[in-house]
Amino acid sequence: MFSRLAHSKIVDHLQWSPAVGILGPRQVGKTTLAKTLTADSAKSIYLDLDTPQAMARLANPTAFFAANRQRLVVLDEIQNQPQLHSELRGEIDADRRPGRFLLLGSASFKLLKQSQSLAGRLSLVELSPLVLSEVFQSFDDTQTLWLRGGFPNSYLAKTVNASWDWRAALIRHFLNSDLPALGINVEPQLMYRFWRMVAHLHGQMFNSSAVAASLGISASSTGRYLDHLCDALMVRRLEPCFINLGKRLVKTPKVYVRDSGLLHSLLGIREVNDLLGHPGTGASWEGFVVEQIAAHLPSGASMSFYRTAAGAELDVVVELGQRKLGFEVKFSAAPKVTKGFWQACEDVDLEAAYIVAPVQTGWPVQDKVEVIGVMDIANRLERLISV
User: Fold this and answer.
1) How far apart are CA 305 and CA 340, in angstroms?
2) In CATH, what number does 5-126 get?
3) For the chain, which residues make up each domain, given as ranges?
4) Cβ distance 296 to 133 under 8 Å?
5) 113 pLDDT more than 60
6) How many angstroms separate the CA atoms of 148 and 145, rounded?
7) Which of 44, 108, 241, 287 could tie 306 with a disulfide, CB 3.0–4.6 Å?
8) Residue 200 contacts by C-beta under 8 Å, 6 or more apart in sequence?
9) How far apart are CA 342 and CA 187, in angstroms?
């Protein structure tokens, strides 16, 4: 059992919000996490809305919710029963106390669309695949998590082949079952080709016209497909950082396959030796680090990247109010940065900058700039809210 970062966030949200929704891809661990929060059956009740037994208990949802007002009611796979949202709204308005409902959904955008009827009554917490701080016991765990990704069944698989087969099955199920169930009518093989193309563009600018030409579809279709994968929490679209400096800034977003294990499956990278000898190794490492940063962002912080036409560049800029931190990602035990990094630090006016590398112990480079390992990311981000 892993201690999930989202656990404390959910507990906090239940202290002030009548309903809390947990968003995340299928098999990411939402149900397991919810059950740790509902171990006391006298104070909580768990219902899997995919089962006839649960739906039988909700034959009269108004009466059921009223009878269980003193318990935390957990509704799993809530996106499959949209009619319950109006019932939830009425019940929350009848007894508006915090911590009444915990809603689990396998896809973000469908639950978000349905939850509009719960505006002001529902808060949302995202559950990402496992990150390093949740599994770390030794430095070797970094390599395992990077190769296999953070879906628990993939990360914990007994063999490399078992992990590979599990991810292949997840991709097939997502394309053939999950997307159609969400009302997305895209031919699975076409979406698979698009997803693989995004994997080859991992960490690069997303040129919808070039992708469209390669797939033989319209640019508007590629934009729509990208939206689908981002909304399903499978792909991250990282927007550029806009600062009024009178300089020509890159305005095109970068794209990343959010889970490194799925990225490697899409690229055909099965084992560590395949990964370390692949031309996309550096980009894969960058995406892995980006997800570690995203998972540890303080509440209210935003994340972007900075690049100018003249070559100033910073992989990640984290902003919280007027305070800014920069992260440059290098896959090297002795990382070196370019002139563009130093120019970007000056342009953005950073409070501090970090060069994230596969090292166990970091070191200072100069004032306010240091090399750090992945496990140091959380500590550096905590400084944003501790001062």
Assistant:
1) 13
2) 3.40.50.300
3) 5-126, 132-386
4) yes
5) no
6) 5
7) 241
8) 267, 280
9) 46
